[in-house]
Design a protein that fits this description.
Length: 250
């Protein structure tokens, strides 16, 4: 198949492209650097000519509430219209577990808006909702930094390795459209504060992690049910301890 990956040069896109090429598919990694701009639409029609599947793992450059909403609405709207015109057989979108359960997060609201556009476009689709990536743990620590300490909630997490996310996205691209949504998550449930503690310990970082019931997740209040699958989910193969041990050292 010809598979176009929007955001194909990023963390998940590049890993998914490698997997799909290994299966013999013709993969186009589409991004502004390759001449495909989903905001202006430049290069989009040409990229989608003859495409069987489009995988969208793109992310916006600015996470401010209004900016990220505008990005996903504009980009997704342009991509879905171009897919419909080109007769693309399936759209695979990567979203976030719990996006609809954290309405005070502008980013999560934008992901829900993206999902709604995909569902309404009239193109067969599969939405893969992933939990937070292990690779995002350092950003969580940074977001909770208060001087020499890190303040975090104890909300339950079930984070997943980017390699497992890429595998799930690639599998979805090769399968028939689900015309629905399913969740993917890592094998272990770990509380957010403990997850960061484990990373700091592995890095020899002596900063203290303070469990703070008033702390938020990038400005949004979260509970034990906010960021984890609440029903069936596909479970990744890589656990957090093994991922920590296998990371390249600086």
């Amino acid at each position: 198949m010809k598979i176009v990956i929007i955001g194909g040069t990023g963390l998940i896109g590049s890993k998914a492209a490698e997997r799909l090429r290994a299966q013999g598919h013709d993969v186009l990694a589409a991004s502004p650097s390759s001449g495909v701009d989903t905001i202006t639409g430049a290069g989009l029609d040409d990229a989608l000519k003859g495409a069987d599947v489009v995988v969208d793992v793109a992310n916006g450059p600015n996470f401010e509430d209004n900016a990220i909403m505008e990005f996903f609405r504009t980009s997704t709207g342009n991509v879905m219209a171009a897919e419909k015109a080109a007769g693309v057989g399936q759209h695979v979108a990567l979203s976030i577990v719990g996006a609809d359960r954290i309405p005070d997060s502008g980013y999560m609201r934008a992901k829900v808006a993206q999902e709604d556009l995909v569902k309404a476009a009239g193109v067969p689709y599969t939405i893969v909702r992933a939990t937070q990536f292990f690779e995002f743990t350092s950003a969580i620590a940074h977001g909770g930094s208060r001087g020499e300490a890190i303040h975090l909630p104890s909300a339950m997490m079930q984070s997943i390795a980017a390699d497992d996310v890429a595998a799930a996205v690639a599998d979805a691209a090769m399968a028939a459209p689900a015309n629905g949504t399913y969740d993917i998550a890592g094998p272990d449930k770990i509380r957010q504060d403990d997850m960061v503690r484990q990373m700091l310990a592995a890095d020899g970082d002596t900063r203290e992690v303070i469990t703070d019931p008033s702390a938020t997740y990038f400005g949004a209040a979260v509970t034990d049910t906010s960021l984890v699958p609440l029903g069936d989910a596909r479970i990744g193969k890589i656990n957090y301890a093994d991922w920590l041990a296998a990371r390249p050292t600086a």
